[in-house]
Write a structure and sequence with these properties.
The structure holds 2 protein chains of 2 kinds. By secondary structure, chain A is mainly α. Chain A has helices at 2-39, 44-49, 64-70, 77-109, 112-124, 129-142, 151-173, 176-184, 189-200, 202-218, 221-226, 235-244, 251-271, 273-283. Chain A has a domain at 77-249: MetI-like fold, CATH 1.10.3720.10. Chain A is built from 14 helices and no strands. In chain B, the strands form 2 sheets. Chain B has a two-stranded antiparallel sheet. In chain B, strands 3-4 form a two-stranded antiparallel ribbon. The longest helix of chain B has 32 residues, at 70-101. Helix content of chain B is 74%, strand content 3%. Chain B is globular. The chains are: A mainly alpha, B mainly alpha. Chains A and B meet through α1, α2, α4, α5 and α6 of A and α1, α2, α4, α5 and α6 of B.
Chain lengths: 287, 300
């Protein structure tokens, strides 16, 4: 009995210790983001020499970096934000609508043709982007898919694999009887899909949607190769070009833009954390 | 029975009439975005070309040039090293954190939120955040992450751990929560120590999660591009006896990119051949590891 009690106390102690260790690790974990915040308020020359110091009277730049950052690199930051939003919203919507439709068709009709398409989709998940990047960018160019309004078609094509794979897995778990009942009640395939199947797909739609948003929003290589970068830049392209094309970089302004670009991501994360973590865990099956 | 069968096929028949609507958009986009570029890419790897329209067939010369290219070989070994070191570190740390967080610790949700957060930040932005931090530290010793290969290597490893531990942790937590409670209870009654329970009961049970995480971190490591480009961009470089240069922290994906776009249009055939080799490598590795860990799962 006494033994049991002492082991309980020691277990409590271990847990308190673990909480302490995790707290310290968590603080270290957010430090890089804190460093971005702090340095976005410093004058350029001080970012490199006093990276980890709080802004002093000398180094404090107020909101200068943010104001400068807006037109930094001869390209308005607001346009980058706008294009990133357009491309992400359009691509994700296209992928969700068309891939869920195709996945339902594949799972239900299950003909030889469907099996070939499904196999190709799964196969495309193990193909790295470098394999197709040159030919894909040339194909997209010749089909005029090089604007923010048309590049979503390229995303639909290259991103179809994972989305169809996930949707087919879920559709197969829906009992067929529900759709049979709808058919008996006189629903055609289109109504069956949109008013019976699609509402049931909601959890998967959210998971896939989150995965696609995270992919498209952060993607750098596909848009930089496909879009005409003098005219259209997404946020990652904008940030890469700040450093890429100039010998001396204004680190203060760069940090200000990085801060502006991660604020929406963190807000999105805190608002939809549960869905995001679930979506990511569901997408882990991908290759 | 016969009735449902005929019913079933009549639904199928009426659905098939709408194939163009359900399948049409995805198939056309899939052909543009994947199927055509993929097969054209394979064809072009056997050609000399500057644009896709001026290709002339030259056989396996591109592959010969690619495989004997010193910078490609270097980037292969550098990538393999990065992938393996990051795989080991990320998985050990992520499993440890997940294990601790499932021990009914106070504030577990808050810790989970914090550890997962870096995963949402894009690779390019991550690279610049960390290059600022490393240069801030190294400035005190008047050097930079761009000046020393080992700094670039460990810098990338630290960045990858920061980014991916939270992701793998989520998968491990899901696995750990699925370990049957009665098994743990039985182990306790039989007097198993914490370590025995961990290695004999818990780890065999979360083997599927371990499979997924190892598979993911290995392929992530091999496919890495954005972080590599933004953190060091391949620097520093060394000049070889024959005048060619090797970027010492350049990984495979970046090496292929540079061969395509910065080495001049004349080397595009070689770049495409490298891309095919890269594809075979990534696909093969993934399948091999999956097969291996699946077999172990069955044994246990």
């Amino acid at each position: 009995m006494a033994n049991n009690k002492s082991s309980l106390i020691s277990e409590k102690r271990t847990k308190a210790l673990l909480t302490l260790v995790l707290t310290i690790v968590s603080i270290i974990y957010v430090l890089p983001v804190v460093a971005v915040v702090v340095n976005s308020f410093k004058r350029n020359t001080f970012v490199k020499t006093e990276t980890f110091a709080l802004p002093s009277e000398q180094s404090y730049a107020g909101f200068d970096n943010f104001i400068k950052g807006m037109t930094f690199g001869n390209y308005p930051f607001s346009s980058s934000v706008l294009y990133s939003v357009i491309i992400t919203v359009l691509s994700t919507s296209l992928i969700l609508i068309f891939c869920s439709m195709a996945a339902w068709y594949i799972a239900r009709v299950n003909s030889k043709f469907c099996k070939i398409v499904y196999f190709l989709c799964v196969f495309s998940m193990v193909v790295p982007f470098q394999m197709v990047m040159f030919t894909l960018s040339k194909t997209a160019d010749s089909l005029k898919l090089n604007t923010p309004w048309t590049i979503p078609i390229v995303y639909l094509g290259f991103g179809a694999g994972l989305a169809i794979f996930m949707f087919v897995g879920f559709v197969k778990s829906i009992p067929l009887e529900i759709e049979e009942a709808a058919a008996i009640d006189g629903c055609g395939p289109i109504r069956t899909f949109f008013s019976v199947v699609l509402p049931m797909l909601k959890p998967t739609l959210i998971s896939v949607g989150i995965l696609e948003i995270m992919w498209v929003w952060n993607d750098y290589l596909l848009p930089v190769l496909v879009l005409d970068v003098n005219e259209y830049r997404t946020i990652p392209i904008h940030i890469q070009y700040l450093k890429g094309s100039y010998g001396t970089v204004d680190l203060g302004a760069t940090m200000a833009l990085i801060l502006l670009s991660i604020i929406p991501v963190i807000v999105f994360y805190l608002a939809a954390q549960k869905h995001i973590i679930k979506g990511v865990a569901a997408g882990a099956v991908k290759g | 029975m016969a009735k449902t069968a005929s019913n079933d096929s009549s639904i199928k028949r009426s659905t098939r009439r709408w194939a163009w609507l359900f399948m049409g958009p995805v198939i056309s986009a899939f052909c543009i975005g994947f199927v055509w570029p993929f097969f054209q890419g394979i064809y072009l790897s056997f050609c000399k070309f500057r644009l896709t329209s001026d290709a002339t067939f030259i056989g396996v010369d591109n592959y010969q040039a690619a495989l004997t290219d010193a910078s490609f070989q270097h980037s292969f070994w550098y990538t393999a090293l990065t992938a393996v070191v990051s795989l080991v570190l990320i998985n050990i740390l992520a499993f440890t954190v997940a294990y601790v967080l499932t021990q009914k610790i106070k504030g577990a949700n808050l810790f989970r939120t914090v550890f997962f957060m870096p995963n949402l930040i894009g690779g390019i932005v991550l690279g610049y955040i960390w290059s600022m931090i490393f240069d801030g530290i190294l400035a005190a010793y008047s050097t930079s992450i761009l000046l020393e290969t080992s700094y670039g290597f460990w810098g990338l490893i630290i960045l990858l751990c920061w980014q991916q531990i939270g992701y793998m942790m989520i998968i491990y937590i899901a696995g750990l929560q699925a370990v049957p409670e009665d098994m743990l209870e039985a182990a306790k009654i039989d007097g198993a120590s914490k370590w025995q329970t961990l290695f004999r009961v818990i780890i065999p049970n979360v083997m599927p999660s371990i499979t997924i995480c190892m598979f993911l971190s290995l392929t992530n490591g091999f496919k890495l591009f954005d972080q590599n480009l933004a953190l060091t961009g391949g620097l520093p470089y060394i000049i070889q006896a024959d005048g060619s240069t090797i970027n010492t922290t350049e990984m495979l994906a970046l090496n292929i990119y540079n061969t395509f776009y910065t080495a001049g249009a004349g080397s595009r055939g070689v770049a495409q051949a490298k891309a095919v080799v890269f594809f075979l490598l990534v696909a093969g590795l993934g399948l091999a590891q999956l097969a291996y860990t699946r077999r172990r799962e069955v044994q246990q």
